[in-house]
Amino acid sequence: MAVRITDECISCEACASECPVAAILEEGNEKNPFDDIFYVKPESCVECVDHADTPRCAEACPTEGAIVWDMPYTSDFNDYYASKNEEGIYKIREHKKKGLMLPSVKEQKFIAEVSMEERESGANVSDF
Ligand code: SF4
Ligand code: SF4
């Protein structure tokens, strides 16, 4: 990913329309593994690289702690995303020919300036 939406989300809908790559799904969407919060598709999120200076979803979000950093969507974190997908934390897209769209199939851009510490601790994206 990229960024992750937490239980703090109040489903206000402010973020989804701001995403330049349509990576955010509303509650109730069949591709969203959660019933009561919005969801960022990690295989699609590019952390707004080449679109904006900072993540647009976090700029729009009124709720402290609702959008936090996650790991880069790169091959180094393939096992991480595979296991979280099994746990149901993510619902990574299954491509007809390529299979599960894990980072080993397609990596995504990420903001290199965000430290691993911030990512591992799930720091607020709005503080970036
Ligand atoms: S960081 Fe950017 S690309 Fe990722 S979900 Fe938020 S708005 Fe979309
Ligand atoms: S803007 Fe924040 S609180 Fe509103 S739906 Fe998105 S993540 Fe949830």
From TrEMBL:
The protein, known as: 4Fe-4S ferredoxin
PROSITE patterns according to UniProt: 4FE4S_FER_1, 4FE4S_FER_2
Gene Ontology MF term list: iron-sulfur cluster binding; metal ion binding
Alphabetized UniProt keyword annotations: Iron, Iron-sulfur, Metal-binding
Domain (4Fe-4S ferredoxin-type): residue spans on this chain: 1-29
Domain of life: Bacteria
Keyword Metal-binding: yes
